[in-house]
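Changelog-linked ticket: magnesium ion example.
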Amino acid sequence: MKILKAAYIGSYHNLEDAPKEILPDFAFIGRSNVGKSSLINMLTGRKKLAKTSAAPGKTQSINFFEIESEKDGNAYYWHIIDLPGYGYAKRSKSDRKTYRKMVDDVLRKRRTLVVVFQLIDINVPPQANDIENINYMGGLGIPFVIAFTKVDRQKTKKNAERYFEWKKELLKTWEEMPPHFMTSAVGGEGREELLQFIAGTIDDLRSLKKI
Ligand SMILES: Nc1nc2c(ncn2[C@@H]2O[C@H](COP(=O)(O)OP(=O)(O)O)[C@@H](O)[C@H]2O)c(=O)[nH]1
Ligand SMILES: [Mg+2]
């Protein structure tokens, strides 16, 4: 799938202010600094679309992007939702509450949300807050897939070991490993696969006449 246009629409603190539910939404969630903004830039091929930062905890609002892409002569229009990151230690209790409400609203109320990309840094062992978030989404019945990030930072063998740690962890609660992708915003790994997945998801919605 080829990206033709990618535009920042806006940043929202309340779902009520967000763009109308007219396009399929693909949301990105994960710990602060996991590489959400970088992955969005990598996917869209626009280096500065989403703001990236070396300092965690910056994205405190829900950012929307509108994407126009093309595959086999067909046009695809969709939204990317960059959700605020969780697990930022320096956040106050009231900020945490605001965070939860913002994310909950998107996950529970947004009718055009089709799938959530759960980002996981493959360079660190399975983290409790990631597992918590996965189980939370599972409990709500939200369709999600996993995008392991930053695969360029360590050896392939180490990535494989981490993958199996995650698999072991997830098979405690899931019957099978959720769909997953290996990605790097630096090397571009996983880009084609993710875009194919998005196109395929939109194709499915079309054949079901949902859009
Ligand atoms: N080596 C490497 N670093 C990355 C990758 N993706 C993000 N980073 C770095 O991780 C930090 C956080 O990235 P960012 O996209 O802002 O994370 P966010 O908080 O989840 O949006 C930045 O310093 C990025 O340069 C990647 O694929 N490989
Ligand atoms: Mg970000």
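Closing comment: Example verified and attached. The CA atoms of residues 122 and 161 lie 9 Å apart. Residues 93-109 form the longest helix (17 residues).
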